[in-house]
Amino acid sequence: MRGNADQHALVAPGSLGAVLDLLAAEPREWTPIAGGTELMVAFSAGRLKARKLVSLWGIPDLQALRVTADEVSIGAAATFLELRRQATIQSDFPLLARAAGWIGSIANQSRATLGGNVVNGSPAADSSPALLVYDAEVEAISVRGSRRLPYSEFHTGYKRNVLAADELLYAIHLPRRFTEHRQYLRKVGTRRAMAIAKVALAASARLERGTIREIRLGAASLAPFPTRLRRTEEVLLGQAPMEETRRAARSALLAEIAPIDDIRSNAIYRRRVAANLLEEFLLELGREECRG
Amino acid sequence: MSVHEHAGQTAAWATIRLTVNGEEHTVTAPPMKRLLDVLREDLHLTGTKEGCGEGECGSCSVRLNGELVNSCLVPALQAQGAKIQTVEGLRLEDGLHPLQEAFLRCGGAQCGICTPGMLMAAAQLLAQNPHPSTAEIREGLAGNLCRCTGFMRIFEAVAAAAGVAERPAALEGGDAR
């Protein structure tokens, strides 16, 4: 059944303060909508449950990109096209710039927002693996004030997160300390353009004399929500990316992930591909180290 | 924003002002009405097509404030005050847009359902990047599906148009910004 526009209210208060007042006055009544690339799809198909929506589109506070010496702060309603065009994102967070270019098509990237991708909480979210390996922090805001927490603690279950009923995701903060890291991101989908990930893996590592001193692995479509693979990271820490380490890391990853069968792929395929992506990253790491 | 109550409806209708192909319009509509439906039903601009209705096929592509969007995913209220260009606004005063000419010449259109969206995506691409490589043309049109041509003739048409369309004014077409 098609969606009926008469059955959904949409208001555009136009300022962050007015949106927060609305969320505080009637908690759980209002669903924020930014670029609409998720909610409008549900609406068109007659699947949109929210009856009252509040627009975040065009609110300057939520679109701002602030760059300091230590940090880049991205307003939650910044679009992926805006991120792709930012020189600082390209130079300091190349995995995020690449992921931004994978979000659907140009017409999706011009509307889809980083905050929307995060809050929607799809296990396959394109931006999430990169945000996880960059130690992103998320900032939530409400009339009560704002708070920051690590992005790795944001998702609490399938499509569940820590935001309170009156809170809005305000910004995503990225520390500028990864330019010396070896970085990796690969998404495996049905088609290069438009496809949703069957599996995606992001990784960053810092080596000292051939030994892994820092490592972060961020995965999509391998758990109920985008997640760091901390047990696999532990196995790799302090090791050189040699064959024995690679084998141990594959085992750790296979023990740690919990992919499912769904319309896009199945668990067996996802497990094999995830292990292969990790191996590919570690092989690249070893080769670059030899070139040294 | 002025608001009207209509009997039997839960959502208050909104008065939305927008400029389409250089012409100012005021429509009264449910704020969640899709921009695609406002263009087709309220403004009778039926050049913009509906394919999938979920942002996958690009048939409903239009340019909104200088960006390419799928009009099936834009609620009308978010187009408040916007400048929109549809395929009807692509033609130049003295004839077809170079992209339209090239699509004709190269066989870039068959059944025609994807063509308006293809043209708008291509117009956006050339506005941003007047001399795209083949890879850039493919990326620029990756969100537009065609089930007739096999795409090659469309890519060739865009490359051909990029070759002749040296005049930036020609690429801007009507009122894209």
Short description, anyone?
With 292 residues, chain A is α+β, with helices and mostly antiparallel strands. In chain A, 35% of the residues lie in helices and 25% in strands.
Task: Give a description of the structure.
The complex is a heterodimer of chains A (292) and B (177). By secondary structure, chain A is α+β, with helices and mostly antiparallel strands. Chain A has helices at 16-25, 39-44, 60-63, 80-85, 87-92, 94-100, 106-109, 114-120, 128-133, 230-236, 243-256, 267-291; strands spanning 9-11, 31-33, 52-55, 65-67, 71-75, 137-142, 145-150, 155-157, 160-161, 168-175, 182-188, 199-208, 211-220, 227-228. Chain A has 3 domains: 5-55, 2-Layer Sandwich (Uridine Diphospho-n-acetylenolpyruvylglucosamine Reductase, domain 2); 60-175, 2-Layer Sandwich (Uridine Diphospho-n-acetylenolpyruvylglucosamine Reductase, domain 3); 182-291, CO dehydrogenase flavoprotein, C-terminal domain (Enolase-like, domain 1, 2-Layer Sandwich). In chain A, strand 12 and strand 13 (211-220) form a beta hairpin. In chain A, helix 11 packs antiparallel against helix 12 (267-291). Chain A is globular, with a radius of gyration of 20 Å. The mean pLDDT of chain A is 94. With 177 residues, chain B is an alpha+beta fold. Chain B has helices at residues 35-42, 98-106, 115-128, 134-140, 152-164, 168-172, and strands spanning 3-4, 13-20, 23-29, 61-64, 67-70, 83-85. In chain B, strands 1, 2, 3, 4, 5 and 6 form a 6-stranded mixed β-sheet that branches. Chain B is globular, with a radius of gyration of 17 Å. Chain B starts with a strand and ends in a 5-residue tail after the last helix. The interface between A and B is large, with 34 and 39 residues.
